[in-house]
Amino acid sequence: MSDLKKAFSDLKNGEFILIYDSDGRERETDLIIASEFMTAEGVKRQRKDAGGLICTSAPSRMWKKLDLPFMAELLAECYNAHPVLKGLAPNDLIYDTKSSFSLTINHRKTFTGIPDADRALTISEFAKFGKKCDSMNEAEAREEFGKYFRAPGHVHLLNSQPGVLDDRAGHTELCTAMLMMADMFPSATMCEIMGDNGRSMPKEETMKYAEKHGLVFLEGSDIIDAWNKRDKD
């Protein structure tokens, strides 16, 4: 079985996989799981074994229907009222042209929202809501979303680009592409793997982590190749 096929199978079974973006981009490896399968143990694993920022992706069809803004665009609309925000614009990202960050949310059944169980509930319910959202019109979806979630919160949402890997090659889109090719709801929860030196763990070390724990390790280039060939196979 190829690494890609095993990754698809593992994602469908609620397992973690590792994805490295590229040497020419962030040069980071993320520990990833399909959001619908997130549990308190899963959040704990990302928090302890990875240690970066835990984020959850939203497919374009979902964030567009819900009107979930990109955070950079939301802040730009406030430049006149709060001029300091203009100076904070993320216009110097050497590895990207646009940050995928959107809102932060908590499920309304959480208390503070930060414990592992709270974040797991927010993440899994966000994916569950995303599936339901497909059958709603915009007004219904937005009203229902407000019934179940509040903002700000402790789960960072990432808006995936409409063209996925045709538009951007960040972890948000790499994860979205994997789930789409696996015929799953395309929301993933990812976390950068950090080293003990406080920096992103080098690829060679994350590959050793994957081997030690029996997890699939994928290069971003392999996912992009599979994405580009998907309609030709």
UniProtKB/TrEMBL annotation:
Write the record's keywords in alphabetical order, separated by commas. Answer: Lyase, Magnesium, Manganese, Metal-binding, Riboflavin biosynthesis
| SUPFAM superfamilies, alphabetized | YrdC/RibB
Q: What are its GO cellular component terms?
A: cytosol
Q: Name one GO biological process term.
A: riboflavin biosynthetic process
Q: Which reaction does it catalyse?
A: D-ribulose 5-phosphate = (2S)-2-hydroxy-3-oxobutyl phosphate + formate + H(+)
Please verify whether the record's keywords include Transcription regulation: no
UniProt GO MF annotations: 3,4-dihydroxy-2-butanone-4-phosphate synthase activity; metal ion binding
Q: Which cofactor does it need?
A: Mg(2+); Mn(2+)
EC class (word): lyase
Q: How is the cofactor bound?
A: Binds 2 divalent metal cations per subunit. Magnesium or manganese.
Pathway where this protein functions: Cofactor biosynthesis; riboflavin biosynthesis; 2-hydroxy-3-oxobutyl phosphate from D-ribulose 5-phosphate: step 1/1
Task: State which Enzyme Commission number(s) the record gives.
Answer: 4.1.99.12
Pfam families in alphabetical order = DHBP_synthase (PF00926)
The family assignment reads:
Belongs to the DHBP synthase family.
Subunit comment for this entry?
Homodimer.
Cited PANTHER family: 3,4-DIHYDROXY-2-BUTANONE 4-PHOSPHATE SYNTHASE (PTHR21327:SF46), GTP CYCLOHYDROLASE II-RELATED (PTHR21327)
Its job: Catalyzes the conversion of D-ribulose 5-phosphate to formate and 3,4-dihydroxy-2-butanone 4-phosphate.
Which protein are we looking at?
A: 3,4-dihydroxy-2-butanone 4-phosphate synthase
